[in-house]
Amino acid sequence: MTPVLTIAGSDSSGGAGIQADLKTFTVHGCYGASVITALTAQNTAGVQAVYGVPPDFVKQQMNSVLDDIGVKAIKTGMLFDTENTKAVAQILKGHFDTKGHIPLVCDPVCVSTSGHALLHPDAVDTIIDELFPLSDLITPNKAEAELLLKQRDFPSRIANLQDMINAARRLRTLGPQAVLLKGGHCVVSLRELANISSDDTQVIRDDLLDENSNILRIHGRKEQHVDSLVVDVLCTSDNHITIFVRTKLQSTSTHGTGCTLSAALACQLARGTPLSEAVRLAAAYTHIGIETAIPIGSGFGPLNHNHSITPRLVPPRTKTNPYPLTSSLLRSSRMIWKEYVQHEFVVLLGKGTLPKENFLHFIKQDYHYLKYYARAYALLAAKSHAYAPISAAIDVVFSIVQESSMHMGYCAEWGITEDELINTSESPALTAYGAFLIDTGMQGDSMKLVVALAACLLGYGEIGLWLKEEAQAPDSWVQWEGNPYLKWMEDYSGDIYQKAVKAGLETLESRAAADAPSLVRFADWQDVWERCTRLEKGFWDMAIDEPRSLNSRLLSYVASSS
Amino acid sequence: MTPVLTIAGSDSSGGAGIQADLKTFTVHGCYGASVITALTAQNTAGVQAVYGVPPDFVKQQMNSVLDDIGVKAIKTGMLFDTENTKAVAQILKGHFDTKGHIPLVCDPVCVSTSGHALLHPDAVDTIIDELFPLSDLITPNKAEAELLLKQRDFPSRIANLQDMINAARRLRTLGPQAVLLKGGHCVVSLRELANISSDDTQVIRDDLLDENSNILRIHGRKEQHVDSLVVDVLCTSDNHITIFVRTKLQSTSTHGTGCTLSAALACQLARGTPLSEAVRLAAAYTHIGIETAIPIGSGFGPLNHNHSITPRLVPPRTKTNPYPLTSSLLRSSRMIWKEYVQHEFVVLLGKGTLPKENFLHFIKQDYHYLKYYARAYALLAAKSHAYAPISAAIDVVFSIVQESSMHMGYCAEWGITEDELINTSESPALTAYGAFLIDTGMQGDSMKLVVALAACLLGYGEIGLWLKEEAQAPDSWVQWEGNPYLKWMEDYSGDIYQKAVKAGLETLESRAAADAPSLVRFADWQDVWERCTRLEKGFWDMAIDEPRSLNSRLLSYVASSS
């Protein structure tokens, strides 16, 4: 959050002035402060009224900001009149003298897009004399450049590219370190561009259509625009000229274009971006802002300042919410999650009244489910790019393989032989879940598989903690001591399993924090999470229902045979 | 870009006032307009000066905005004095009367976080009498609620949760549709919360730690905060109470908290979010803004307004830049891309001077490469979720299989038998590239594979177009007619192949537009693209170098045997 300051007018309609600047700062990830030199009552149709802020109050605002906020770059826009311009220059000079220079972008705003005068004519000299010498860059448009040059008796007419280059060089002699002469209103031809090239002149086509990109040029059908080019001309302190070429846009969404460009430049310079690259990036940001604008208002509408950001779907991890992804997933599947972790099977197990046949059916199917689960973790290892995640995934595989023999021993206690266990055929609910894990792993990236694997890991952890917590209440419905399924409850509420739960949470959250998902990816994770949660519930349903229906089939067999 | 209007004071330091509002609007994807009622010279240490804007100019700003911008919600903040409050209420009433009501959030700002009075005391009655009846929601904090209640001779002391509920209900009788009483300064206990529940009261814990989330509570070690809860109390038009509970934060980054909350509420209401959900979302946004703030200034610093957005790495598709992803990929690997598409092999081929042995070596290896390429597209089909991409991928597989027999016929013309072609052993450069495609497909999601497959598809398209364009120049270095490799050049510059190139561009771009990549994913795409580009260059290197070294080995064998 690099702090950046704008010193400019306020545009009530929000498209230009400090409003455009603050929006631009925000989407560039900078922190915006603003000193207001004048208020306007304004909209897309024009400027209805202007109210100048007294120079002393401009100074007070500047001192409040500069004394406290560690501003890394400053832009000036509409300064209104001579007194306010003097006030701004005086405070800036004092600040630079005492605390050192920081990048200053001066947008010498004289006239609004709609044609309204925004600077008293007698202030032009003050800007040149007092502000230009402090400026790293000035950003006049054609009209402003002509006005500034005329003021100092330079040839001022700008009619073609060579005029622009000459004008940029002359403007630099007025004091600023560099000049960016904006040419949005002048069309130049490819022939003009070709004639210009010399040792101290560089041409940058931001759209990269000059070299090794025939496929983009031809398939994008750009050739039809080839004669509608506009340029910005940058003259740097060594008198070097850089010409930034782009396609001219036909648009009425241009209210605040100059404000936006100089604000974006201030953000780039605040971060230390070299000047030429800063201009390329700021011009591209502004260009796309015009081209993607949605009409607002009846006249010259504002740019789209938001094209360079997307919403962040999973909030950042914080102390009070260390598990934002998991919270979001639980919230999005709240009902089915509850049906899973508080399933009838779990409740009966906690009461100790679950029929043995249901538990045995569950545990035999679980033995085979764990094979899929181990294979899915092995697949996760195969999809990982670094030793740490490979090792973490393979540790889980190893644990499951070890547990399988314990599982067998456990089954033996319940009278299930090794043969019976191995030869148990898969219930559809188990195959659905196991194969879904493998399929998810094959289809997507490793994070998608991590999400799929989490529903089992976290759900059994939740069940273990829930039963244990409920058991501790007075007159609890959970029977802990003496419960035939005590070992199962102890296993999933115990330290070893809960340590795995915590590690699983960390993996999910650290990966989501390191690579925030887009809307589409997040929806994909929610879908996978919910499907796995449903498949878990289906697994419990199977454990409850299949022995029942087997019994009813046996009963009807007995009935029919008798 | 839903337009939202704030009517409030300006905070030069950028943390509160219209500045906080505009930042909040922007990151919520809304378009912000702003009417300024007063200027402050202010920073994180306090308010140094206040300058009231004349009521007529407040009216002018409001008219400019409301006459032109289709505002969908309005918030009011600091209104400064009685006259400005009257001016705001008058224009709003007139606007609502003629154009219909839109959601109005009134933040009855009286005192700044730093303790500075921001409203003339005699304006309190005006706010109650003229603004509250127009308001859908008012958002006082404890101090403001006490002031408002006292003004109307209600019991005003707020010391606990029950006081807050009573106060919210009493404030609603003053005129607004709903009241959100902010309790950021009052700690409440779990016991108080438990005692409150009744039929017309609902408790919402935003962190979801109340139900089926023991894993988050216990592993997040939240129990240590369990007694530091704060609540906001919402009283709606049916007198229903909703209590929003969250963990109290210890932070000095609270400058502009109230402005931010009411601005976020205005955004939610502008979009039609139901009130209770709007409060939950706006409170969560504000809470995270405080918790993730980075210190700025020496006193009460601003919130982090940017936590809910991330940068968009690939620009939106526009008319002047229809292929932004491909442009970015070409830009990021500009040098190696050039070495690939303008490789010595390509240049010699275009001149017609490429030795036959190099071409034959290339074409034999290419036959085997295309098997990997077909398998990679089959894998892409297997990783796709909808019939359209499955069909598109399988079409490519089918084309390659068909081409393989043409390839064989083509080789026959150059004297290569079917046996020789099939029994050619793979060069390492080919195996590296082919196996990299399969590995990339196994590791990542389908888009990563699409990017990997594009380097070959687009590169050969670029080469075809380049040679064809160069051939058309006068005295071209490219020999077109009579070139022994004419058919190869015609194939890759021809309509059938270029149609595939265009389709490939569309797939890349439409997928990137539909699911904008994060920084990490984009870096991953760049990496895959660059590696494939290098592997393509390696393939040409192989075609140039391996016959040469074979020749030199043969020569040295001849030399040593003679």
UniProtKB/TrEMBL annotation, chains A, B:
Residues of the Thiaminase-2/PQQC domain: 333-545
Name the UniProt record assigns to this protein: Ribokinase-like protein
Cited InterPro entries: Haem_Oase-like_multi-hlx, HMP/HMP-P_kinase_dom, PM/HMP-P_kinase-1, Ribokinase-like, Thiaminase-2/PQQC
Organism, scientific name: Suillus placidus
BP-aspect Gene Ontology terms: thiamine biosynthetic process
GO MF annotations in UniProt: hydroxymethylpyrimidine kinase activity; phosphomethylpyrimidine kinase activity
CDD domains documented for this protein: HMPP_kinase (cd01169), TenA_C_ScTHI20-like (cd19367)
Residue intervals of the Pyridoxamine kinase/Phosphomethylpyrimidine kinase domain: 11-201
Assigned GO CC terms: cytosol
